[in-house]
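Translate sequence into structure tokens.
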Amino acid sequence: MGLFGVSIFLTLFDFFSRSILSSEKNKLGIIMLKRLIYTVIVLVLIMSCATPEDPVTGNEPENKIEYIKTVETGGYVRDLDGDNNYIVFANDMAGVGVYYYDEDTVKVKYREQSFENIRLARKVKDLDYCVFYSRYGESAGIYLLNMENIDSLYTVFTAKITGQTVSVNDLKIDVDSEGNISPFWSNQNGSNWAVQGGGKMVDIGEYYSWNFESWTRHTCSYDIESFDIDDTYIYVSKGQLGVDVINYETSEVVKTYDTPGEPLNIRLNGDIIYVAARQDGFCGLKKDTGEILFSFDTNGFAQSISFDDKYAVVSSGGGGLYLYDITDSMNVKFIDNFNDLDYCYDAIIKNDKIYAATRKGIVVLKIKD
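Result follows.
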């Protein structure tokens, strides 16, 4: 509209309001109406002003994503993870599923009657185990699933944390040089949130347990949407307040980084923190300083990030998924958007294919040359 146009509009509005509405009752009404209109105009002006931090919208789509098929799973696919052999996925009330690339099918599902809502699933790297999270009811907890015999899956350990698991938003798995599996998750305990876990998996014969005494707990006073871990620090999303960098040994917050939007998912890639910033799309920060390196708008709510050596894919809910070229970490480029997915919760990239977690099932897409 511009400042000149706004001033003319306000002058005319004031003239007509004074000449037409002269009673005391109408005077009160017009005063309230004026205030409302002034407020709207100020907001429009503020939102229309460009700033150095405005997101980069990216190039025009390159039409690089090709639809292949939809694999029906019998429920919403809330989350997925995989290696070079298969994908494990959280199938909501339908349990935990396993999708094999070679056979291009869901070969098996694991479900107990008590499972009410499977929300997160993580494949343990280089081992035939899966760690998954059941959200509600008596089954609420973190489970370790043995997948060595695909025809006979069974849980070998459960961290029962009933009453706290409704607040688990993220789950990470670490495997040390001796093959010990260490899970980390975010959860709420009373009024405090925490990233906890890290206990070593101990072989006790036929079954396994996690050594609770070796667990660590990093308590925060805010909701934790997501986190990631390197050798020294835990990087914690604190909603609209940005990202805290926490010393792993001391639990001291050593830095706080401001981010666009509200970080729903953060992932570390070398010296960069990738952020799915809800309504503000996808951005990248320098890990040591928090400097914003790039920022891209997305439709919908950006909520999950996955990447390989060449590409990053951002799941953006009703906006579908977005593909980026990350071969040059200092010059990330938008490639394409695929939005015929109903709703996209998560996605992973394997061998130039994208496997998207949606309400329809697993949607398989190809990245064209």
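Note: Confidence is low (pLDDT under 50) at residues 44-57, 202-213.
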